[in-house]
From TrEMBL:
Signal peptide feature range: none
GO molecular function: ATP binding; ATP hydrolysis activity
ABC transporter domain segment(s): 22-270
GO CC list: plasma membrane
Species of origin: Allgaiera indica
Pfam families attached to this UniProt entry: ABC_tran, BCA_ABC_TP_C
Keywords: ATP-binding, Nucleotide-binding, Transport
Protein name per the record: ABC transporter ATP-binding protein
Lineage of source species: Bacteria, Pseudomonadati, Pseudomonadota, Alphaproteobacteria, Rhodobacterales
Amino acid sequence: MLDANPEGYTTADGRKIGGVLMEMRNITLRFGGVKAITDISFDIREGEIRAIIGPNGAGKSSMLNVISGFYVPQEGEVWFHGQRRAPMKPYEVARQGIARTFQNIALFDGMSVLDNIMTGRLTMMKTGLFSQALWWGRAQAEETEHREKVERIIDFLEIQSIRKTPVGRLPYGLKKRVELARALAAEPKLLLLDEPMAGMNVEEKEDMSRFILDVNDEFGTTIALIEHDMGVVMDLSDRVVVMDYGKKIGDGTPDEVRANQAVIDAYLGVAHD
Ligand SMILES: Nc1ncnc2c1ncn2[C@@H]1O[C@H](COP(=O)(O)OP(=O)(O)OP(=O)(O)O)[C@@H](O)[C@H]1O
Ligand SMILES: [Mg+2]
């Protein structure tokens, strides 16, 4: 289906998926003697919700870290917007329009929800501290614009009531939502979510699922997510990459992956806490 439609396709529920946005070609990543990723290739299409699944230690987070520029693979190529990406620092990747959340929440506990979300816009701020001192008028205008964008995200994720609360005081599920807000504040083209629903109860998972779908729908954001809850993965994603011991063992629509015997053996049959 995909090969026959290089410019994209329409999903069963009527969402338009475009051409290839990101392509991983033959990626291999080693940590000393440990091969975290072995010769993996896959692509992510514009507007798509793409899942990466697999048992613990399969190499999923490592793959997200390659996409976000945190790790540079020993072998393989990363292509973004039809161009091969030179090895670059995570902040440079962020400037290209890729934002992420972390498997272990990475927020500033002592800072308010609002200020945490503002840090998501740092890569976009034109005026540095020095020029802010000299040109405070322009810096103020910029600050106002940033605040307006952030307020829109706060409304969108329904966290108005906690905007002044220090993040450290929030329950886990809301922290995850604030982390999503911070990533969205960077207005990413591609959003990477590493287990956005881990540790959540059913209701919190439903909320997060809805927000992920809404982000994709409202902002047209392409999303790559790692998730262990198979129900969530199958509901949310357009296509799924399956990893096991650093290798790709499956890639396709949720139905295709569900029917793949290698996947059933490696993952679906194995209990996961
Ligand atoms: N910084 C690192 N240094 C050394 N080894 C690492 C490092 N990061 C990951 N690994 C190893 O690489 C392999 C893949 O780890 P990774 O965290 O990518 O797996 P994962 O699929 O995200 O697992 P989980 O579901 O538990 O989060 C594991 O064997 C892990 O121990
Ligand atoms: Mg992980």
